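Aggregate trends can hide what the representation actually does to any particular protein. In the encoding step, the backbone of a single protein was reduced to a row of integers, each denoting a local shape. The record that follows shows the chain in one-letter code together with its fold in token form.

***
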Amino acid sequence: MQNVISRWDEIKENTNINLDLFLEMTEFCINCSYFQFKGQSYQQVFGTAMGNPLSPIIADLVMETLLDSVTKTIKFPIPVIKKHVDDLMLAIPKDEIETVKNTFNQYHQKIQFTVEVEKDGKLPYLDLLLVRKPDQTIKTEWYAKPIASGRFLNYLSAHSMTLKINVAKNLIKRVTTFSTNVDEATAKKIIHTQLRQNDYPKPLINRLINRRRENPPAAAPPTEDDNTKTFRSIVNIGSLTHKIQRTLRSDYPEVVTCPQQRKTVRSIIPGVKDKLEENQRSNVIYKIPCADCGSSYVGMTSCRLKDRVSGHRSTINKLTELREAGKDETDQEIMRLREKTALLDHCITNNHQFLLDRVEVLDSSHKKQNLAILESCHILNTQHTVNKRTDTDNLSGTYAGVLHTVKTIQHTTHRRTVE
């Protein structure tokens, strides 16, 4: 927190929050980094957690404070200092390298630096190779580490063509922009080598290089239209997605769609962290079977499933108490319970009980606005539900064909499994 306090004069220019509240919020974000592994809970005890959105900002803040502190103790001027998060590039005398490194490493025992010295007038820094010329000027070349695999998004992958072309364009831009005093043939060779390793066809590479040479990109000022556009993702399904995008551009020019892959590395390789138990999950669609008939209730909840089921159990217990007190279906309290959920309505009408200990999670979404649509879809595709007809009234008829296909596939799969 000392780093925030020491640089508060700079930070406060960008916020209306006072220092005390800002420190409290920052501390809360840092101290809430925890996870479970093999049933054991762990919490970050030093520094900030990888993946925490605040980590890069805090790291940059710490480095700024470190630089201010260390450079004041060095007894000679440093003409050049460049910083990118924790990567530093300094121009210092050769006989002072060890002195400067030790000075930096004395700042904090858990923040230690290593040194890479220029060799033959060349020094790699980030994605650049800095080349010191005899007249002491610096030229730059595009650079990849010796351990770099050279892998980009492969041209033969199932991603959208737009994404593949943008990957190629970005590489061409980096090579040509980062390289100064490099002839066109050398830059073209680098581009071809990198992209051909990832199966990009030569005609496409040449076309993109020529297009950039003939029409160098210029930074266009933002227009008022940029603020009125709506951006949405759309699942990438071969040529179908491109056709949908083309139709949307024609009919809804204010909507910009971006293809999104559902089959990601993360979906294939399981995470190492412990999965939440079913009853601890939130933002889910769930199903509860009836103990007395083949029906079931489909519901949704944005809170923990355990809490939602507890709410069902509480209202069912309330219904049981009213019945034991001699109340019938015409009683006002029982009528109010009937209006709460279709589950209670089924219990009151048929005098049935639901198996609250056999709740099944059908679906989930991290976007709460998707839950209502998912719930309606599962109600329509689940046989013998007790849900009310009004639960699916808001579902667009556009989903009917897709749901029918999904239901047919599910029924066929189930029949084959039974056989």
In short: The first strand starts at residue 34 and ends at 37.
